[in-house]
Design a protein that fits this description.
By secondary structure, the protein is mainly β. 7% of the residues lie in helices and 43% in strands. It contains 2 helices and 8 strands, in the order H-E-E-H-E-E-E-E-E-E. It has an 8-stranded antiparallel sheet with strand order 4-7-6-5-1-2-3-8.
């Protein structure tokens, strides 16, 4: 499953998710993100249900690369706390990126972007598979 396909299984994708932790295991070619995933229902008037989050671990296996662009110096990137993100598939016709990403990808691999609102910059990832495990 790609990161985009995984996002499609979530009520709001990775929109407004919050990263608590990122662990990259180079020996096992895995990345794990501990996230607070926004699962709220926008159609309800109940603010508690609309703003509901669940904690989950997203595992990316067969990690090809993980590239982190530097934060925008105009943002408070040094402040401790979660990182407010969104994510999507990296398309082959993307406009010029701030970094040159490795290509071509191995057969069966996917590439995605993760936009970090708090930094005004991107993380780029390529892997073979994405999965999610709910922690609550």
């Amino acid at each position: 499953m790609t990161l985009e396909e995984l996002a499609d299984t979530l009520p709001n994708g990775f929109h407004d998710a919050e990263v608590r932790q990122l662990n990259i295991d180079y020996m096992n070619r895995e990345a794990r993100l501990l996230l607070d995933v926004w699962v709220g229902d926008l159609s309800t008037k109940d603010s508690e249900l609309r703003e509901r989050y669940r904690q989950a671990e997203v595992k990316l296996s067969g990690l090809v690369y993980w590239v982190i662009e530097p934060p925008d110096a105009r943002y408070a990137y040094g402040k401790a706390g979660t990182l407010w993100i969104d994510a999507g598939a990296l398309e082959s016709d993307e406009p010029q990126l701030a970094v040159k990403l490795p290509e071509p990808l191995p057969p069966g691999a996917f590439a995605s972007w993760i936009f970090v609102q708090d930094w005004n910059s991107f993380m780029h990832v390529a892997a073979m598979d994405a999965s999610i495990e709910w922690k609550d």
